[in-house]
Amino acid sequence: MASTYARFDTVFLFSRFAGAKYSPFSPSPSLLSSGFQLRTKPASSRLQSIVALSSSSGAVVAGTDSIEIKSLPTKPIEGQKTGTSGLRKKVKVFMEENYLANWIQALFNSLPLEDYKNATLVLGGDGRYFNKEASQIIIKIAAGNGVGTILVGKEGILSTPAVSAVIRKRKANGGFIMSASHNPGGPEYDWGIKFNYSSGQPAPESITDKIYGNTLSISEIKVAEIPDIDLSQVGVTKYGSFSVEVIDPVSDYLELMEDVFDFDLIRGLLSRPDFGFMFDAMHAVTGAYAKPIFVDNLGAKPDSISNGVPLEDFGHGHPDPNLTYAKDLVDVMYRDDGPDFGAASDGDGDRNMVLGNKFFVTPSDSVAIIAANAQEAIPYFRAGPKGLARSMPTSGALDRVAEKLKLPFFEVPTGWKFFGNLMDAGKLSICGEESFGTGSDHIREKDGIWAVLAWLSILAHRNKDTKAGDKLVSVADVVKEYWATYGRNFFSRYDYEECESEGANKMIEYLRDIVSKSKAGESYGNYVLQFADDFSYTDPVDGSVASKQGVRFVFTDGSRIIFRLSGTGSAGATVRIYIEQFEPDVSKHDVDAQIALKPLIDLALSVSKLKDFTGREKPTVIT
Ligand code: VG1
Ligand code: CO
């Protein structure tokens, strides 16, 4: 160990780096590789033979005795502040000199030594453009900072839930996820990076704030002089005491799913000739998981997977599983002869959209229905869920399930990172967000395929005794039965994407001003105000406070209007308006949500003066 990192404390500069206009992290992949490989001790032919050996056995370890660590001078770069979920920018920005490298080094500068020195970190992503080059950069800086082992998905592929699963299973100290999630990919679009901690949860704001602080004072990047790692073969490559293990992206995750769910039960449903199933991977990361899980393991027909090959630009698509961007699936599901169950997932595989034949399940209802049915349909919850939680703008459907099942309930700000502490403390089992995120404490991320398997389990359980030829209990039946029991929370979200930041910020300031002067009992059209505020959350586990998390107007009948700015966009500002109204009367449950919510939507638009502030007549996406 001492000899391997002998140069660590006395890092020296190579003259070619000092004052050079380019860096080894320059946009051009060829420059990237040549910049390193030319100066690397083991010849690339040597590496190839190592890889060739390891590919046949999958586990041959070889390499050099020690690695050299170089110090690369760098300068702070503005604007590297993480949002709701990691750092997201246009890929061109990430490809600028040292942009990614600075952030990665700032991360190491922010972690306690014991969290990374000789530690194991996981690395994977959604297969988008620039992930391959980024993998090499991250591996070299990790080695440069004294990380012991990197577990990386083959071809750099690991879904966000799989990274969380691998961190937990292999007891890794953390992991990197290379993804801008639901944001589009390709040379003109977005890239992103996220860091998760040892229980698999997204790093808390205390850490991401520190990273941001360090990006503003960074002066050197520590890089190991090793060749690019061949990510196309499963196996281990060692350089001194640093090793890289290329792992199969699916197996750990699949094993976990087999523990959580009753695969035989689901197989029974998927193999029925009278049950039609369709999964749209949107050319994103779940393409790598859908066939092995749904087809090879659970017996779905091979043609039930659409857009099942992960592509660097998601086939020019916007990998966001909603009614607008997953239109192909929606069209199939709304045919008379369409499948009985359809689902889609996003770029990095943590979101899900669930549909029945001619029936859309809102994510807010979906998490409530999964929670209400979990104990009887999913083996993992046999003892009953420990507690339930939702993000603040998510509808109050889940609240009613928690009340009925007498379970602890939590309302947290938008972003999955707020659920992790509650799960670690054993207070929370099932949670969700209105933004097509659903999950449980089997990992510490939302999980698209988990949600699909949860729904298939519920349907399989309900149809255990349905004989061939009889009408199956459908997705719509399950949802309507749920509404009849608990009441229906009508919910809709309006997104105004890429507005001018100035107008959007002014609108939020204007709303904050209204909130600060508001009083209970004031009337807003036909609604009477119960309270208005800017949501603030105190974590019950560690006491940390997150403030200014969304302006909300809550009315005496439980209706709510909520305004927030997105924290995941890469350009301008995206305004989100969330509208909700509770309806206990079963005879009114079949009304279209847009019609039921029209008065509240109009109220939201007039209270906020959205048109005046943003110039937008219409939302970009309605959910
Ligand atoms: C959005 C969603 C939020 C979700 C986040 C990350 O954030 O609203 O619920 O957790 O994306 O999802 P924002 O700040 O844009 O509203 V993912 O699948 O993009 O990692
Ligand atoms: Co995602």
UniProtKB/TrEMBL annotation:
UniProtKB keywords: Carbohydrate metabolism, Chloroplast, Glucose metabolism, Isomerase, Magnesium, Metal-binding, Phosphoprotein, Plastid, Transit peptide
Matching CDD domains: PGM1
Acetylation recorded as keyword: no
Cofactor: Mg(2+)
One Pfam family of this chain: PGM_PMM_III
EC number: 5.4.2.2
Subcellular location: Plastid, Chloroplast
Catalytic activity: alpha-D-glucose 1,6-bisphosphate + L-seryl-[protein] = O-phospho-L-seryl-[protein] + alpha-D-glucose 6-phosphate; O-phospho-L-seryl-[protein] + alpha-D-glucose 1-phosphate = alpha-D-glucose 1,6-bisphosphate + L-seryl-[protein]; alpha-D-glucose 1-phosphate = alpha-D-glucose 6-phosphate
InterPro entries hit by this protein: A-D-PHexomutase_a/b/a-I (IPR005844), A-D-PHexomutase_a/b/a-I/II/III (IPR016055), A-D-PHexomutase_a/b/a-II (IPR005845), A-D-PHexomutase_a/b/a-III (IPR005846), A-D-PHexomutase_C_sf (IPR036900), A-D-PHexomutase_CS (IPR016066), Alpha-D-phosphohexomutase_SF (IPR005841), PGM (IPR045244)
Source taxon at top rank: Eukaryota
Alpha-D-phosphohexomutase alpha/beta/alpha domain mapped to chain residues: 80-219, 252-355, 364-466
Assembly and binders: Monomer.
Family the entry assigns: Belongs to the phosphohexose mutase family.
Name listed for the protein in its UniProt record: phosphoglucomutase (alpha-D-glucose-1,6-bisphosphate-dependent)
Name of the gene: LOC104726709
